[in-house]
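::Encoded backbone::
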Amino acid sequence: MNFKHSLWIFLFFNLLGYTQKPLDISIVNAKMSQQENSWNKGSINEFMNHYWKSDSLTFTGKNGVQYGWQNTLDNYLKSYPDKAQMGTLKFTTISIQQIDLNTITVLGKWELSRENLIDLNGYYSLIWQKKNNQWVIISDHSS
């Protein structure tokens, strides 16, 4: 293979990676909007569809580090047993960065508006990873 041919192959694959980043970030943004919508419909199960269904999922919150998709779901259901407790969720992204072709980090603020209950808010740091060609949250630190 000559130098010119090698250069074209190198450029092709590098440009492919650069054009993929905005698309991947758009996909993660869309998934976060879907999570908001699922939460606001009162469907924690649907909200959880965007988390990695694995015992290796990590969720860090006020009670420390929890492991596993099922534990995370159970904790959400315990903390938010009905639509009134769930309220209306709003995510505000502060920054989103694609670290490599399979990893995106999102830093943001969450707000829960609830009728007749104290509103809640805090910050989150998410690690999204591409697993089986799908973007899923593998680590969530919310406080």
Notes: The chain has a mean pLDDT of 91.
